[in-house]
Design goal:
Blueprint lengths: L1 H10 L6 H8 L3 H7 L3 H12 L1 H4 L1 H9 L2 H18 L1 H7 L2 H4 L2 H25 L6 H26 L6 H17 L3
Helix pairs in contact: 1-2, 1-8, 2-3, 7-10, 7-11, 7-12, 10-11, 11-12
Amino acid sequence: MEASLELFTKKGYTATTTKEIALKSGVAEGLIFYYFKDKNELLNYLIHEFSFIGSLQNEIKELSKMEPYPALIKFGQLYADFLLHNKSFLTFIWSPEIVQNTNVSKDIVDFINTMGEQVSSFLIRVSSCTVEKKTIETAASMFLSTILTHVLVEERKTDKMPIENNDYIEEIAMFVLKGMQNSH
């Protein structure tokens, strides 16, 4: 899988052949077709396998059992770690070729919406007051996009996440929650 992701990222999805993927993976090309009917099915598998929501399936149960504020922080930490360790996946899914692929773009939008819904559920549970749905959705979007921006900027500056990343995520959470409380 990683070989196909690497080739798709470097050469582009269309320009990469299954023969090249097999060669890079050290397997026979037929083995790829044993698991996937075509390159498009392989692409869809990659999108689901390497997505944040796909990687989070094991942690979702744990997060749902936690108190809402620690769960929100843990979700933010998992998201930051995912972003940091999956740079090639991010480069690939935001490449012009993949952005223009309507099937993949729909899946990516679904993943983003699911992430927003998950963060919204934490925010609803932790909020001490009634907040409009639109405000919660905006707060969830701000939480996720701020972490994304932080990871990308810090990675560009230092090529690693700063040690105070957990403190930063807690500050984002507090800022978002205070903003929600002040919105009504």
